[in-house]
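Hi everyone,

Forwarding the result from last night's run.
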Amino acid sequence: MKGFLKFLGTVAAIFTAILGAITVYDRFANRNAIKTEYLDCSDSLPDTEDDDK
C-alpha cells in the first residue's frame, strides 16, 4: 500500500510539473495578445436582406 501511494504521489507531482510548465509557456507565448473583445465583429458585417434568392 505504501508503494502504491508513493506511485500516486509521483504521478501527481509529474502531472503538476507538466501543467505548470504549460501554464508558464502559455503566459509568455501570449504576452502580447489582445486583451479586449477583439472577436466582436457584429458591427462590421454588411446588412444583407436579399438572402431568399
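The mean pLDDT is 80.

Cheers,
N.
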